[in-house]
């Protein structure tokens, strides 16, 4: 077997990676990571949409029950003010929506950083 000068210095030439190969490998890893993040983002976006629809349906159902309860209380002369469960649900909905928006912003920022580094 012929030994290269690099092998003569106890360095196997197969371990040598050119800067171009390293950059290519790094780009491939970042591209794979970006694709995984995009897939995760799509999945999370779909989950948020489903949860949002479920939350809206539950909110509508709760509103209807509260209207029925208020109607019954009015008939019985027992109307009094108390914090609405709907208010708490609406607050939770807006917090969830804010969290989703924050996630989208972070994903967009990550994509911009990746694209800037790719150039």
Task: Compile the SSE list and pairings.
Blueprint: H1 5-8, H2 19-76, H3 85-118
What's the story with the biggest beta sheet?
A: none
Question: What is the number of domains?
Answer: 1
**Could you say which structural class the secondary elements and strand pairing correspond to?**
mainly alpha
**Which segments are poorly predicted (pLDDT under 50) over 5 or more consecutive residues?**
3-7
Mean pLDDT: 77
**What percent of residues adopt helix (DSSP H or I)?**
over 70%
How many distinct helices?
A: 3
Strand content: under 5%
Outline, from the CA principal axes?
rod-shaped
**What's the count of strands?**
0
Distance between the termini: 42 Å
Roughly how many Å is the radius of gyration? 29 Å
Order of helices and strands: HHH
Your description of this structure?
The chain has one domain (28-118). It starts with a helix and ends with a helix. It contains three helices and no strands. Helices cover 81% and strands 0% of the residues. Helix 2 packs antiparallel against helix 3 (85-118). By secondary structure, it is mainly alpha-helical. The chain has helices at 5-8, 19-76, 85-118. This is Liprin-beta-1/2 coiled-coil domain-containing protein. InterPro entries: LIPB1/2_CC (IPR058914). It holds the Pfam family CC_Liprin_beta. Keywords: Coiled coil. Residues 27-68 form a coiled coil.
């Amino acid at each position: 077997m012929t030994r290269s000068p690099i092998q003569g210095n106890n360095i196997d030439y197969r371990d040598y990676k050119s800067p171009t190969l390293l950059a290519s490998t790094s780009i491939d890893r970042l591209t794979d990571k970006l694709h995984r993040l995009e897939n995760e983002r799509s999945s999370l976006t779909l989950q948020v949409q489903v949860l949002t629809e479920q939350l809206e349906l539950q909110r509508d159902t709760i509103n209807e029950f509260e209207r029925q309860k208020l109607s019954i209380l009015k008939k019985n002369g027992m109307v009094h003010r108390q914090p609405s469960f709907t208010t708490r649900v609406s607050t939770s909905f807006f917090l969830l929506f804010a969290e989703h928006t924050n996630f989208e912003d972070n994903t967009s920022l990550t994509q911009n950083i990746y694209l800037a580094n790719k150039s």
